[in-house]
């Protein structure tokens, strides 16, 4: 289990976008509309500053945004997912689907947790079962047909059931009564901007 001691709001400000990691209300309440630091740059002109004009800066920026958007993954976790995706075909078509197969992402998409961070906490504390076995690895890549379910001691807690808010994703079959989700098919997604991440790892 990796501890993240850095201030995550600063990272989102550096990225310059909400990234869907935190509820929008928290973003608007806590985040200043500029990059961190005494001489922070407003988001509107951030992309015109310094290294972001360089090819490496653009590549690094896209990688960091995607890493943050999926729950502030560590570089090691992201590199592992990238390696798996690269073996499957073109990164532009396989990287996002592979990220969507992460156990942490599926817990979030299924609505069992409000944020990626609370999803990771459920996994780290042993509250998530995959085909009946406890899995404590948030970077675990779920396979088609595998059933992800809350452990029995948490399955029928009213607080979790009442606040469950599943996302509308076609690759998941969600049963809120049993607090279970099944990956029915591998997700499909294509983004040409992901070529920048491929170039970053070259």
List keywords for this structure.
Ribosomal Protein S4 Delta 41, Chain A, domain 1, 202 residues, alpha+beta, Structural Genomics Hypothetical 15.5 Kd Protein In mrcA-pckA Intergenic Region, Chain A, 45% helix, 8% strand, single chain, 5-stranded antiparallel beta sheet
Counted up, domains total 2
Class by helix and strand content? alpha+beta
**H/E topology pattern:** HHHHHHHHEEEHHEEH
Distance between the termini: 28 Å
Tally the helices. 11
Biggest sheet, spatial arrangement of strands? 2-1-3-5-4
Give the C-level CATH assignment of the largest domain. Answer: Mainly Alpha
User: What is the strand tally?
Assistant: 5
> What is the residue-mean pLDDT, rounded to a whole number?
79
Description of the structure:
- By secondary structure, the chain is an alpha+beta fold.
- The protein folds into 2 domains: 8-95 and 191-200, Ribosomal Protein S4 Delta 41, Chain A, domain 1, CATH 1.10.1050; 102-183, RNA-binding S4 domain (Structural Genomics Hypothetical 15.5 Kd Protein In mrcA-pckA Intergenic Region, Chain A, Roll).
- It is built from 11 helices and 5 strands.
- The chain has helices at 8-15, 24-30, 43-46, 55-69, 75-88, 91-100, 103-109, 116-124, 152-155, 158-163, 195-200, and strands at 128-130, 133-134, 147-150, 172-175, 180-183.
- It has a 5-stranded antiparallel beta sheet.
- Helix 5 (75-88) packs across helix 6 and helix 7 (103-109) crosses helix 8.
- The radius of gyration is 18 Å and the shape is globular.
- It starts with 7 loop residues before the first helix and ends with a helix.
- The model is unreliable at 21-25 and 45-49 (pLDDT under 50).
